[in-house]
Amino acid sequence: MIMKDARTIEIVDTTLRDGEQSPSIVFSAQDKLNIAKALDKAGVTWIEAGVPVMGEEEQEAMKMILSAGLKANVIAWNRALKNDILSSVSCGFSQLHISVPVSDLHIEQKLKKSREWVLENLKQSILLAQSFGCMVSVGAEDASRGDREYFLQVANIAAELGAVRIRYADTVGCLNPLAVHSIFQELIPRCPLPVEVHMHNDFGLANANTLVALAAGAELASTTIGGIGERAGNAALEEVVTAWQVVYGMKCHVNRTDLPHLGHLVMQAGSKDVFDYKPIIGNAFTDAHANKIA
């Protein structure tokens, strides 16, 4: 039952970007268009459609999605690099997500750069995207292993430049629900932007971590259909939405009756089987069962 004073959260679905990084899953351009249309029909607010800088084949699929006249906001994912931004703009995108690393592990060991370099690169990337009239959201990669104060510094700079939200990413899936509650209880009151939560499932905690973050004040959840994604996957759209609405009694614009179809569509496109025991979209979760959920 939905509570009288229930909070409403929005879904940022990344099935077509992070989800396609799942081992052995490759979507055709038509698959991607069909999935995007199904997500739109289900009421998903934001669809992260891919990474234009990856090349012409990726861009062709993304152009098809942009031309489909969807109600959902369609986003291109970018690193804070000039070529990424220009590729997204030339592909026709007006809504860009720009991701930067915020942990010293990624900044110093992976990129061999400094915190100052990341901040300057982010500023220039946001300004470049805005010079083409684009809306920008910012991603804080590997935030769960980073300094919370640095995350807030990134958020403050993004807010000052007009970004619409910031993504807190548990890139390696190392958090647990108790840690998530503590982190978000501290960050949410101090963050100048709405926070989107992006959890990976390396220890099977992506759904729980996402729900705890939402309960602590995050306003958007990054998900994939069936929880597909890099390594062990991501938070599952259907499980997060159903738990948020049924268990927490809160609101989300996604229509739960569309979830089983979404699951089967993605699994068929990715040549994967839906296991009988999979919550919400599994074969054991019949229409009759679904109709019994309050």
Automatic annotation (TrEMBL):
The answer to whether keyword Transferase applies is yes
Please list the GO biological process terms of this entry: carboxylic acid metabolic process
Q: Which UniProt keywords apply?
A: Transferase
Q: Name one GO molecular function term.
A: acyltransferase activity, acyl groups converted into alkyl on transfer
Where do the Pyruvate carboxyltransferase domain residues begin and end? 9-260
Does the entry feature the keyword Transferase, yes or no? Answer: yes
What Pfam families would the database entry show? HMGL-like (PF00682)
Q: Family assignment?
A: Belongs to the alpha-IPM synthase/homocitrate synthase family.
What is the name of this protein? Homocitrate synthase NifV
